[in-house]
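Lecture 7 notes: from sequence to structure.
We start with the chain below.
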Amino acid sequence: MTVARALTLYGRAWCHLCDDMRAALDPLLVEFAVQVDVVDIDADPQLEARYNELVPVLVCDGVEVCRYHLDQARARDALAAWAARNAHRA
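Predicted structure tokens for the same chain:
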């Protein structure tokens, strides 16, 4: 069984808030059996220009869920909606 990638976390390698958000996501990733794509914005000039000081930014299906700190309720709601939309693919 492949684990779906429902979330994207935009951040930086040297960002402690990014590390904190990534760690805080772990219980939700297990709960919803999904993975997160972690994208280093410094590797892409367009992403760096777009997000720069806003990181970390958590996105689900192209919609920003939260930035700076994990909003558990919004992330859970976004994952539940994502799971409902993708239930037919299971």
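Points to note: The chain has one domain: 4-89. The helical segments are 16-32, 45-51, 72-85.
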